Amino acid sequence: MKKMDIKIHVNGDWYELAVNSGDRLVDVLRDQLDLTGTKEGCGEGECGACTVNLDGKAVLSCLILAVQVDGCTILTIEGLQRGSELHPLQKAFTSESAIQCGYCTPGMIMSANALIYNEPEPDEDTIRKNLSNNLCRCTGYDRPVKAVLKAAKDMKGDTNV
Ligand code: FES
Ligand code: FES
Question: Which ligand is nearest the CA of 39, by number?
Answer without folding.
Answer: 1
